[in-house]
């Protein structure tokens, strides 16, 4: 009798649980469907410093990016923007297409700096600090070779977009409100306006969602949830932490510890002054312990505004690395059915119940402790670190 009653109670609890989840998914589906009819974002009222770098992006530039940037400049207001583009080592026609973009921006009287580097990737590697120099970004691989680390190289390339800002600052022009970083993605002016309006415009950083092969999120290297953990899955609702997951499910600004994801807006203030915020990699001595971190995560760890204003991922802003991906995530068919949501929520739940980031994070933390003990140095971007070594080649990069 007691066993029968216990079985009956368990069935009732499971039924209630099922009904609760079902109603929750129906509610979320209605919210996501309503988002398709959301009013347009407010018009721009900020001065925006647009920063981008390109490498072998000819197809994207031709098909989408150049036209989108022109439309964006016109939407934001020619007098409200400065465009800084740095191209590095391309051999696929990117230089010619960016030259055409530069000419069109000149025709519109847009203030800009479009730098087309004549250096090859090999030349750029050689120009940066050499093995043995302090902070040179080189590392000895397990097979005994000395190789250029990928992240310090990328950080140096990214920092080129700030060179015009430094000249403007020296001339007394420090009136920009926002830095908008545009990756090699398909976007529209409306996407940018939505991004700028994230959390009512109050943030240390606001990021889009980026997709290469929908529905899988692309950039998880720099993404950390509100607890500093990696995404638990590449599909919706993405996150392990309750705070981030709750917001992502409901299309609210998602509090995160770090993000980049194709397009990001940040207040200009930290990028000015005597110690301006810049991209960087972790130290070479720490990297020898087989750990690495994205320069796009470390910049949030270094940003003094991160702790006070917060970093948000905007789930209503979606960009793609090609036209088909962009169209797919913006199609009405991209709205998940309640059943699809139910499955995804349970997939997320099971991953949270039966997997843990603690083992991976413990390995990294133990290596950091050894490094700290030996060098007496600190790394404030500990949550960005992963168990990898990434080295650069002229034609790409690989894990070691």
TrEMBL record:
Residue ranges of region Disordered?
A: 125-144
At the top level of its lineage, which domain of life is listed?
Eukaryota
- InterPro entries the record matches: Mannosyltransferase_CMT1
Question: Where is the signal peptide, in residue numbers?
Answer: 1-25
Q: Which UniProt keywords apply?
A: Signal
Name of this protein: Polysaccharide export protein
């Amino acid at each position: 009798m007691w066993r029968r009653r216990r079985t009956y109670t368990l069935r009732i609890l499971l039924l209630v649980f099922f009904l609760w989840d079902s109603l929750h998914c129906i509610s979320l589906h209605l919210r996501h469907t309503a988002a398709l009819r959301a009013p347009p974002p407010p018009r721009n009222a900020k001065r925006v410093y647009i920063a981008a770098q390109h490498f072998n992006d000819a197809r994207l530039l031709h098909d989408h990016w150049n036209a989108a940037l022109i439309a964006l400049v016109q939407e934001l207001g020619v007098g409200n923007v400065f465009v800084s583009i740095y191209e590095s080592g391309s051999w696929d026609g990117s230089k010619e297409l960016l030259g055409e973009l530069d000419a069109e921006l000149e025709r519109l009287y847009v203030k800009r700096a479009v730098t087309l580097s004549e250096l090859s990737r090999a030349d750029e590697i050689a120009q940066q600090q050499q093995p043995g120099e302090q902070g040179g970004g080189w590392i000895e691989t397990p097979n005994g070779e000395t190789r250029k680390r990928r992240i310090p190289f990328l950080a140096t390339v990214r920092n080129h977009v700030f060179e015009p800002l430094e000249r403007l600052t020296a001339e007394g022009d420090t009136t920009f409100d926002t830095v908008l970083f545009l990756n090699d993605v398909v976007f529209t002016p409306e996407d940018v306006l939505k991004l700028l309006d994230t959390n009512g415009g109050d943030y240390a950083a606001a990021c889009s969602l980026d997709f290469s092969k929908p529905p899988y999120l692309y950039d998880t290297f720099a993404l950390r949830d509100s607890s500093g953990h990696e995404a638990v899955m590449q599909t919706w609702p993405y996150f392990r932490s309750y705070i981030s997951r709750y917001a992502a499910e409901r299309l609210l600004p998602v509090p995160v510890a770090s993000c980049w994801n194709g397009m990001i807006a940040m207040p200009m203030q930290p990028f000015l002054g005597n110690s301006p915020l810049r991209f960087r990699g972790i130290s070479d001595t720490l990297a020898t312990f087989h750990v690495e971190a994205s320069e796009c995560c470390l910049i949030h760890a270094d940003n003094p505004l991160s702790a006070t204003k917060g970093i948000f991922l905007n789930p209503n802003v979606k960009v793609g690395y090609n036209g088909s991906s962009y169209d797919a995530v913006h199609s009405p068919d991209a709205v998940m059915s309640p059943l699809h949501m139910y499955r995804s929520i349970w997939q997320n739940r099971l991953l949270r119940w039966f997997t843990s980031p603690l083992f991976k994070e413990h390995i990294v933390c133990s290596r950091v402790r050894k490094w700290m003990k030996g060098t007496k140095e600190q790394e404030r971007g500990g949550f960005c670190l992963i168990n990898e070594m990434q080295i650069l080649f002229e034609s790409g990069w690989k894990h070691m």
